[in-house]
Amino acid sequence: YARTSSAKRVKIFGELTWTKLIFLGLIATLFSYGPLSLFAPVPLALGVLLYGRLKTVLMVLGFAAVSLALQAYLPQATWMAVSLGTSTLFAGLISEIVLRRSEPTKGLIFTGTTFVFAVVALSAIVVWTSGTNLHEEINTNVATMFQSVREQNAEVLSGGGEEARVLADFLSKPEAFASDIMTWSFSFLFVGVHFTLWVGMFMILRNSLVWRIRHAYPFGLKDLVRYKVPYYFVWPLIAGLALFIGADAIAPWAEALGGNILACLAVFFFFQGFGVFVDLLSFLGIFGFFRSILVISTVFMGWKVLVLAGLFDIWVDFRRFMKTKKNDEGDSL
User: Fold this and answer.
1) Exposed/middle/buried for 55, CB within 10 Å: 0-12, 13-18, 19+?
2) Which spans in the chain are helix H?
3) d(Cα 195, Cα 300) in Å, to the nearest integer?
4) pLDDT tens digits, 121-137
5) Which of 49, 164, 188, 202 is a good FRET partner for 5, with 20 to 30 A between their CA atoms?
6) What is the CA radius of gyration of the chain?
7) Residue-wise pLDDT tens digits, 94-106
8) In sequence order, which residues have a C-beta less than 8 Å from that of residue 26 and are 6 or more positions away?
9) Is the per-residue pLDDT at 10 higher than 60?
10) Contact between residue 52 and residue 96 where contact means Cβ atoms under 8 Å apart
11) Per-residue pLDDT at 332
């Protein structure tokens, strides 16, 4: 921030300048293309919390305009602009949880669920009013995409080998892939939205010292990682399992419905299982860089274990076997 001494402005460390806001936008733009796009909302959310909504939106519009202007020279520029817009939307949802002082996990679950159903409702309205045959449209787009992939990998396919056989087998079934999109699109959207919000909220709370001087947010990282799934979630879980396992005896649609229910519930059990895992690391005395590596690798490669841990924690309560000396280790991730 800037102090004044008589009539003279004196710059001090931490002054909020446009240069720093543009730097946050540059990070988000670079992250918006590729696997790091999951983290692109984080610098934008920091921008909202530090500089406000208006300045951050103006900065994003500037970067989007530059990306579109470069599309003739950089083929990925259009996708980067679209991805940046999507990241801005998620950044707004994340920052609103803080600005409204909502409890982090409950806030992101409410925000994410509302957003998912809004997208589904809007999509249904667009499809209905336009008279589009959604099934045929998806089949056509998938067939076009598979043909493009086949042309781009012509040398690999003609070269033979295990990789070529796997790719050729996959590209020979566009109808099956289109059917999977129709079947699992809702759960993919639901899980993707909630996981993106959770990662963003995790990073924002992990770096809360940056923005807490401007916002008296009453919750910390431990409130996010120590989320407990309500016990009544067991009933939709049982219903989903019954539909998924007993689909042959019920109806053809039962497997898809049950699978979508289970996938949507899994994200909530993941939240709880992650909290159990973090407390386990604290109980074992694992901190520092090695702790960070374990957390990241487990989230992306061992997420199924975290889901199961969160599920069984409803009945077992794993934390009662862990006696830690501190109660605030959740903020030391």
Assistant:
1) middle
2) 18-31, 41-51, 53-69, 77-99, 104-130, 134-152, 154-159, 162-171, 174-206, 221-225, 234-245, 247-250, 252-283, 288-301, 303-316
3) 11
4) 999 999 888 888 888 88
5) 49
6) 23
7) 999 999 999 999 9
8) 63
9) no
10) no
11) 52
The single-letter code of the amino acid at 265 is: L
pTM score, whole prediction = 0.85
In this structure, are residues 193 and 87 in contact, taking their beta carbons and an 8 Å threshold? no
Angstrom distance (rounded) from CA 211 to CA 214: 6
> Do residues 241 and 258 touch, judged by C-beta distance below 8 A?
yes
Our measurement of the distance from residue 6's CA atom to the centroid of its chain's CA atoms, rounded to an integer in Å, reads 48
Closest C-alpha to 296, from 158, 203, 187: 203
pLDDT the model gives residue 21: 92
What's phi and psi for 3, nearest 5 deg? Answer: -105, 160
Pairwise CA distance, residues 245 & 259, whole Å: 9
Report residue 130: phi and psi, to 5°: -85, -15
Per-residue pLDDT reduced to its tens digit, 55-104: 999 999 998 888 888 877 777 777 878 888 999 999 999 999 999 999 99
168 is written with which tokens?
Answer: 């050729």
Phi, psi at residue 42, to the nearest 5°? -65, -55
